[in-house]
User: Fold these one by one.
Assistant:
Number 1:
Amino acid sequence: MLLHLAAWPEVEDYLKRSTGIIIPIGSTEQHGPTGLIGTDAITAEAIGAAAGDKTGALVGPTISVGMALHHLGFTGSISLRPTTLIAYIHDYVLSLARAGFTRFFFVNGHGGNVATANAAFAEITAEAAGGIGAMPSNRPEIRCKLVNWWDFAPVKALSRDLYGNAEGMHATASEVSVTQYLYRDHIKPVPAAGMSPRIAPVSHFFGAADYRRRFPDGRIGSDPTLSRPEHGERIHAAAATAVADAYQTFVGET
Ligand code: NI
């Protein structure tokens, strides 16, 4: 059940059987010459929704804009500052906690969100427990967890089989395939001359301008010309199963 398609009495009923919720979190940022700018939000949303279908979990609205300051050298990218994203996650979670939700399971589509989301979780769990100096209490414990959909072993094995060392770190072949599966009408043509180099370079970077200088077309380590919608269907299915299992474990944990 998607929260934004539910009426409030349905959410009250849901809370009688579960206090867990799945929250997709992504980003709105360049994904190389052929990847959709919404890739990270689109993939997290679809995989989160599919995991919700499998488990009966409620799925919250997608956090579509994330921490992508390093992509701002490319037109169309949008970022929150880390402090803004912390405040956003804080307010989102505590609004639902007030109603009785206690288990917040974030399905993440963007590596750049990880550090900031975990900082937000530390703030939230401390505050929900009554603040940094609080004495132990019997109020319900708030737990937040974030998983990257591409990090599960079966998903990694599939992308390794399909793309080998051309999977890459950004504008990956697998994430582009998942968006091709979900939005076939928006598959971008590969430039006639291909991409150069075929597999993009890999290195560290400092800030948005340095990122663009080191990775002129936006890719890191990937060859998304290998992406196919049929691959995306398989990757999406593997990720949805893995995310659903991890959610069940999370909400079942004492
Ligand atoms: Ni991405």
Number 2:
Amino acid sequence: MSARKGALPYAGASDIGLVRSGNEDFYVVNPPLFAVADGLGGHQAGEVASQIAIETLLGNAPKRADAKALGRAVRAANAAVIEGAQTGLGRAGMGTTVTSAMVEGTHIAIAHVGDSRAYLLHLGELTQLTQDHSMVADMVRSGTLTEEESRVHPNRSVITRALGSDPNMLVDGFELDAAPGDRLLLCSDGLTSMLEDRDIETILQTAPSPAAAVARFIVAANEAGGQDNITTVVVDIEGSSPVTAARPTANPAAETAVPHEGSGRWIGRVAWVLVAMAIVAAAWYSAYAYARSQAYVVEESGVVAIYRGVPGSFLGISMHWLEAVTDVPVAELDPITAARLKSGIRVDGVAPAFSLAAGYRQQVEPSVEPTTAP
Ligand code: MN
């Protein structure tokens, strides 16, 4: 799907690049929805996954620039990619990134998973809106790698979150208010691995139209080597937002916690403390009940371990209980799974966790070689 030619305030384009034998990227330009997906898993898998994701997103997108609703549409796309692999539409192990935006006047909602990116050019200055879910981005954030090093790191394409494997996949979602004259860019890593941010900024600053910008991006990425499929969507932000009248809401806790004046003041405070304690107790209990129904698999001392519960802690109390430690070595699994196991892969219960671990065992057992298609 692509924009019609003309003076439209948006455009999208995708190019195979100079090295790859197929294009596994997919995008949609269907205002107010814009999205880019970068498929993973190779021939007959990556391009299927990215197309399923974009089509499902299109069918489930909300009418408004609402990040939560857009996030739900991305989760529906995730379920569709998982189902596609199971029903033979694509292949097992296929996955895809999705970086999506709903643009309503100057109001923008973003929902994002993977290492495709959203950028905003505001007053000539480029800002990266999304955080990559990738191994090198984690290393840059923890300070073990510089931004420059991450661009040439051998594991730069290993992503830690993607659609197609985890039914409980987390979606990053947020909203922002841009200004008329700003430019929004969505792109796959075939652009950002070839061009530095300052080159992307220059092209967005100088291109006379979104159509000119997407064309220049593809030329520039190919001139820089075209190592991967290149997909970009550019949207010019124009007009005023229908939601500009709605100021950011104040912290509701700060408003409601103001004690009443007069004789009821102390009673009010005591009541507030009791209400707060009841809320904490109820929240803790419901978190506990939820955690008991959940499970996850995670790397522990180099092997796959199975836990009931959820990773991390709630109100300072950890909510996970060891179920089993397997002898499946994480280092022998495919790199994406291995990377995701570092933070844990969540599933709906202990039984699915055991079957996930059983699948990993099959991966490392030499007798179960994957067959190659003719
Ligand atoms: Mn790519």
